[in-house]
Recover the amino acids of this structure.
């Protein structure tokens, strides 16, 4: 521990100690200090294009046109750090991360990237991109990969599959990024996708039946059996019911980003936003040195959940439930700089 501490103290001015992550299956606790790689002399020592790591490109851009973007992303990182600090009691409830907490972190060894996937935030397309990046030539066009194949877990390697030293090494030297979205828009998107469409009954059976049983008075036998007509009001009542999270963690489609990706424990180098999806995604690809031949897929946006749609769904929710729901997602709002929606009637 001592040499690591000394090193951090010595480099304190140019570097930032970002994170002390503890990983432990037993009593095993490993602290790790992430050091941002800034060049202390301000001289550009290298390089052939593509020979620098994404982290170097991000924190020490060689291209002038990228410096404004770098400033924007520094502000986003600061926002996360400040929110974590201000809400440390809430955000650091679990001080120790275990490998099991790293299941959402997809690893690309070839380009030194770690992507934490958040369902309902373009994660299918980003998983497709990660398959192209890690495929060593197997794919060239992300859209040639069928959506269901992108979700087959064996097709991508996640950080929990490595040993603890390997995990620490990758957390330290890879560029870690995630994509976030306005929390209630994401929630309505999850609701619409899982409860208002008939094509896949697994969510109806697994969650719909439970929600109706608990939240609907005088439910019919058919509704209890099928679970396929959950109302948004009932879904919200289920989410704010304290029993729900005591029983088991939320499903990943409506779990908070801070619970899926642990941004107060893992220092994300880049926070991409759904609102600027293509721009932020292509920036990641550019930093990874593949921007010239790989672009984020553009696709039809007609069925996307919008702010207007979200407003409409919330109209039927009582202000008491709105307030409680906001509390559940509050850290995601604060961390990623989403303001309180204007349609909310908070108590
Ligand atoms: C947060 O959002 C506000 C308003 O949308 C914006 O002016 C500000 O620059 C943002 N801050 C960060 C850190 O992104
Ligand atoms: C339905 O969804 C589940 C879970 O997302 C998935 O495992 C299953 O393959 C899907 N079935 C169909 C027919 O799409
Ligand atoms: C449920 O059914 C009972 C008996 O039919 C009725 O008295 C009651 O009003 C119903 N409750 C609701 C919420 O519909
Ligand atoms: C709101 O409630 C009304 C009356 O119960 C219903 O007709 C309408 O579909 C609901 N709207 C939404 C978006 O759930």
């Amino acid at each position: 521990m001592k040499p690591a501490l000394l090193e951090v103290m010595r480099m304190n001015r140019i570097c930032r100690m970002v994170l002390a992550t503890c990983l432990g299956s037993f009593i095993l606790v490993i602290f790790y200090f992430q050091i941002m790689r800034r060049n202390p002399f301000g001289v550009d020592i290298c390089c052939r294009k593509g020979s620098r790591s994404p982290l170097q490109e991000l924190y020490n851009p060689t291209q002038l046109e990228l410096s404004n973007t770098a400033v924007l992303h520094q502000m986003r990182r600061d926002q996360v750090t400040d929110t974590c600090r201000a809400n440390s009691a809430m955000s650091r409830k679990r001080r120790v991360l275990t490998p099991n907490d790293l299941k959402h972190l997809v690893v690309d060894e070839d380009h030194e990237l770690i992507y934490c996937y958040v369902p309902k935030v373009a994660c299918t397309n980003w998983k497709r991109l990660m398959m192209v990046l890690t495929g060593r030539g197997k794919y060239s066009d992300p859209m040639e990969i069928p959506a269901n194949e992108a979700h087959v877990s064996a097709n991508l390697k996640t950080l929990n599959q490595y040993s603890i030293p390997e995990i620490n090494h990758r957390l330290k030297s890879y560029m870690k990024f995630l994509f976030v979205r306005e929390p209630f828009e994401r929630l309505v998107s999850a609701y619409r996708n899982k409860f208002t469409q008939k094509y896949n009954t697994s969510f109806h059976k697994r969650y719909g039946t439970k929600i109706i049983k608990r939240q609907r008075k005088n439910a019919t036998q058919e509704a209890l059996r099928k679970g396929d007509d959950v109302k948004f009001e009932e879904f919200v009542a289920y989410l704010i019911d304290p029993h729900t999270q005591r029983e088991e963690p939320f499903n990943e489609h409506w779990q908070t980003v801070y619970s899926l990706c642990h941004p107060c424990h893992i220092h994300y180098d880049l926070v991409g936003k759904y609102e600027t999806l293509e721009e932020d995604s292509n920036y990641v690809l550019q930093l990874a040195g593949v921007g010239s031949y790989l672009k984020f897929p553009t696709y039809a946006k007609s069925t996307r959940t919008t702010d207007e749609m979200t407003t409409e769904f919330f109209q039927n929710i009582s202000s008491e439930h709105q307030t409680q729901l906001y509390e559940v997602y509050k850290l995601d709002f604060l961390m990623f700089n989403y303001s309180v929606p204007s349609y909310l009637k908070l108590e």
